[in-house]
From TrEMBL:
<dbReference type="InterPro" id="IPR024607">
    <property type="entry name" value="Sulfatase_CS"/>
</dbReference>
<dbReference type="GO" id="GO:0016787">
    <property type="term" value="F:hydrolase activity"/>
</dbReference>
<comment type="similarity">
    <text>Belongs to the sulfatase family.</text>
</comment>
<keyword id="KW-0732">Signal</keyword>
<dbReference type="InterPro" id="IPR052701">
    <property type="entry name" value="GAG_Ulvan_Degrading_Sulfatases"/>
</dbReference>
<keyword id="KW-0378">Hydrolase</keyword>
<dbReference type="InterPro" id="IPR000917">
    <property type="entry name" value="Sulfatase_N"/>
</dbReference>
<dbReference type="Pfam" id="PF00884">
    <property type="entry name" value="Sulfatase"/>
</dbReference>
<protein>
    <recommendedName>
        <fullName>Sulfatase N-terminal domain-containing protein</fullName>
    </recommendedName>
</protein>
<feature type="domain" description="Sulfatase N-terminal">
    <location>
        <begin position="37"/>
        <end position="359"/>
    </location>
</feature>
<dbReference type="Pfam" id="PF14707">
    <property type="entry name" value="Sulfatase_C"/>
</dbReference>
<feature type="signal peptide">
    <location>
        <begin position="1"/>
        <end position="20"/>
    </location>
</feature>
<dbReference type="InterPro" id="IPR017850">
    <property type="entry name" value="Alkaline_phosphatase_core_sf"/>
</dbReference>
Length: 565
């Protein structure tokens, strides 16, 4: 029995030692409380504004996310930092627009042969929390760079960017070519793009989807279990789903669970994991002290026909600057602090979270070692999250405008109820194109379409004078306002905002598009093929506990009946 306990603690110890501490804590953490909560961010990939039942989808099943919505607050005017994965995540995690960080150019997202990543002078949310004494952890999709020098240096991995604990993770992403059904790719997955890491080590190539969701959840539970040893110290956990990006997948429990097909199955599986996270916080007695945010990284990849999600009628989708590309589902949950069942129409941005925690957790010692304070693009939304913002206060949409970029092109700006488009990109599958039927026979995409992925200058549509929409009356951007006494000054305000904004952007090195194929991860070279993912530590813990129960039972039996034989 003692041996087992020893084993338990040595597993915990080993895990803590394996994670070297690169960012130092400068300040003591606040004692965890409802006003200084743990923070868990649940980031879903490509989930559309209209993909959840609670956001109006007529075919998606009720899931644990609907319970989260009933117990928390749902936002209808939440925006991502960009409409593609890497820049939107870069924006969220630094609180700064991707244009400031240089997450522009190249393929618009990091691909395995990119040598760039988040610049080291940027401070990630994890680093910021860590400087303030929080414990930090993550699992799932990263997509903010991998290697810089060779295929194992891992310079840009989450463990180098403030995360103490890193479980099962996708340093790149789940892509369509990872599909294992052989329906779209008869030769099976393209392993060069499909790999899974455990911490800093590549462990599956190609990655296997069957146990992926369970493993992600297990690693979250393991982190939580370890946190119980320091109950007053707050933590930050980034749970970043590979769902519902193509290729969609579902294990045997969720396959055919949705009337909507595989896309809905994939949502149901993801939502199960959300339920597990919330339930384990509740059963650990941590719910009142933990703020959980669920959001998408941007709009759905609507170009993928039935493999893409729903914008609920918002125009466009992933990769362009219409509302369908930027407006995201966003749910906040913290029983007792975040009002239950509330719907907020206030304009918020994924970048506001950084600014909110930064303001709430002053740490002068950390500022002293940073040469300069980098300008943040968000605003503090703590009182809005709590539903305590006074009606008399200026609307957040006027406090900080929403800027819509397509790569390095500034396309549009929203302030107040108005959105002004200077440029737009063409919309694929816009209903006027006869080829749509050819591209999506029976709703099945023939290719991984990205009409506006790179936003090349020659494909952009210039609007002079700029188009103005009232996105409160007309979130679908159907009816540009006609020139009148209101529209002309709105264009003037938009021009001023954009001028000021441009002045604030300092030239920086572009991180995307510097390729060297020798940095591409490869498991067991030269094969680049493996499956050596270990049993998850939480599962091991549970197994050890079971063993302990059995041995306790044996001891009891022994004490009553004496030893066997
Ligand atoms: C990879 O690069 C890192 C950093 O430059 C270096 O420390 C390491 O030795 C290199 N590994 C190999 C196998 O060359
Ligand atoms: C797999 O993807 C790589 C790029 O990552 C590409 O060069 C290669 O041609 C692809 N292989 C197949 C069989 O499609
Ligand atoms: C509709 O799609 C076609 C083909 O992609 C494109 O030429 C056209 O500009 C699109 N229209 C709009 C309004 O985006
Ligand atoms: C790519 O990386 C390898 C290994 O570090 C290096 O020898 C080579 O010069 C690099 N190629 C380019 C084009 O930078």
């Amino acid at each position: 029995m003692h041996r087992l306990e020893g084993l338990l603690s040595s597993i915990l110890l080993l895990i803590s030692i394996a994670n070297s501490h690169r960012t130092e804590p400068f300040c003591n953490p606040p004692r965890v409380s409802p006003d200084d909560p743990n923070v868990v961010v649940l980031m879903v990939d490509d989930l559309g504004w209209g993909d959840l039942q609670s956001y109006g989808n007529p075919a998606q099943e009720e899931t644990p996310i609907e319970k989260m919505v009933r117990e928390g607050t749902r936002f209808t005017n939440a925006y991502s930092a960009d409409s593609m994965c890497s820049p939107s995540r870069a924006g969220f995690i630094t609180g700064r627009l991707p244009i400031r960080i240089g997450v522009t150019g190249g393929a618009r997202v990091f691909i395995p042969q990119d040598i760039g990543g988040l610049p080291k002078n940027e401070r990630t949310m994890a680093e910021m929390f860590k400087e303030r004494g929080f414990a930090t952890g993550m699992v799932g999709k990263w997509h903010l760079g991998i290697n810089e020098h060779n295929n194992t240096d891992g310079s840009h991995l989450p463990s180098r960017r403030g995360f103490d604990y890193v479980g099962v993770n996708l340093p790149f992403t789940n892509v369509w070519e990872c599909d294992t059904t052989q329906k779209m790719f008869p030769d099976g997955p393209n392993a060069t793009k499909c790999f899974l890491y455990d911490g800093d080590e590549i462990v599956q190539q190609p990655m296997v989807f069957d146990d992926m969701t369970v493993n992600l959840v297990d690693d979250f539970k393991f982190f939580l279990e370890e946190r119980k040893t320091e109950p007053t110290r707050p933590f930050f956990f980034y749970f970043s789903f590979p769902h519902v990006h193509s290729a969609q997948f579902a294990n045997s429990e969720f396959l055919h669970s949705s009337m909507r097909g595989l896309y809905g199955d994939n949502i149901n599986e993801m939502a199960w994991a959300v339920g597990e996270v919330l339930d384990s916080l509740t059963s650990s007695g941590m719910a009142e002290n933990t703020l959980v945010i669920l959001m998408s990284d941007h709009g759905p990849h609507a170009e993928l026909c039935l493999n893409g999600g729903s914008t609920a009628g918002l125009k466009g989708g992933k990769s362009n600057s219409y509302e369908g590309g930027f407006r995201i589902p966003f749910v906040a949950w913290q029983p007792g602090t975040i009002p239950a069942g509330r719907v907020s129409h206030e304009v918020i941005s994924s970048m506001d979270l950084y600014k909110t925690f930064y303001d709430k957790l002053p740490c002068e010692a950390a500022e002293k070692v940073k040469q300069q304070l980098l300008p943040l693009d968000g605003t503090n939304i703590w009182s809005e999250l709590k539903g305590k913002r006074s009606k008399k206060e200026k609307s957040l949409s006027r406090v900080r405008p929403i800027f819509y970029y397509c790569n390095s092109h500034l396309m549009a700006v929203r302030f107040g109820r108005h959105k002004v488009h200077f440029k737009t990109s063409p919309i694929f599958r816009n209903g006027t194109d006869e080829n749509t039927k050819q591209w999506c026979p029976g709703g099945k995409p023939l290719d991984d379409w990205y009409v506006s992925q790179k936003c090349p200058e020659d494909e952009l549509i210039l609007h002079d004078p700029p188009l103005v929409f009232d996105v409160v009356y007309d979130p679908y951007e159907m009816y540009p306002l006609v020139d009148d006494d209101i529209v002309i000054p709105i264009r003037g305000i938009a021009s001023d905002l954009i001028l000021d904004h441009r002045f604030s952007i300092k030239p920086t090195h572009q991180q995307l598009g510097r390729f060297n194929s020798s940095v591409m991860p490869c498991c067991d070279p030269p094969l680049c093929k493996c499956n050596k993912l270990k049993k998850r530590p939480y599962t091991q813990l549970q197994m050890l506990r079971k063993l302990r129960e059995i041995s306790e039972e044996e001891e009891l039996l022994e004490s009553v009946y004496g030893p066997e034989n």
